[in-house]
Amino acid sequence: MQLILLTTLTMMAFAANSILNRMAVDGVGMAPMAFAAVRLVSGALVLFVLARGSLVFRGRRRGVGVLALLTYAVGFSLAYGTLDAGLGALILFGMVQVTMFAAAVLGRDEVPLQRWIGGALAFGGLVWLLSPGEGAVPIGPAMAMAFAGIAWGFYSLAGRGEPDAVAGTAANFVLAAPLGLVAWALVGGGGLSAAGIGLAVLSGAVTSGMGYALWYRLVPQLGASRAAVAQLTVPVIAGLGGALLLAEAPSLRLILSGALVLGGVALSLSSGWVRAGRK
After folding, report:
1. Could you tell me which residue ranges the EamA domain spans (predicted)?
2. Is-contact 50 213, C-beta < 8 A?
3. Are 19 and 246 in contact (CB under 8 A)?
């Protein structure tokens, strides 16, 4: 039960990142790269304090975590200049599922048939959403979010062997933050607003920094395949938040494909949580 509650809380934090980013970039005119940079810097500061300065910067895992975090943050912010909160989250975590399921297979993790079927249904909903036709998704922002999803999958996988979740997350943010500032400067800097800075700080310090530290702690207990499927609940939470807070009306395609994704999630998790709770 504790694992379920903590995972639910983490998924809500992930969904909040979509809403906060969308509010800042589309709502108050914050430049996407500026949002990404402020988000990384504020997350680094808070996590450095939480980790009490006890950071480990060496190792291949750290390099993967830093580059994945930076790629995710940049792609995420760029995509939300156009995509609605729920739509962007659906693309993001659909690609996370693909990445982490592939890692589970290559790593010879146990992936029961039921979870394969559920994952296939969920991914089918994502493919339907991105297919051409009426209500099709803009390809540029969709690709930016897809790359962000792949990067987040690698970031999650890098956290599986992290001995100290808070210290590991802090080290990733501390190393990624200067790179984010450089990337922002390379595109010309600027694009700041007071409200946007506040939203970026909230995203970086709370829903990203603290949320990711908790996620690093949970991933080893969940396993790669179950962690991938659990994250597919985030688009639904983000979509509801976008509708309530941003007046983003979901399209029929998004509703139906989202329902397919949810069905796949429910099928995949119906027996997995029980086994996890008995360990």
Report:
1. 144-269
2. yes
3. yes
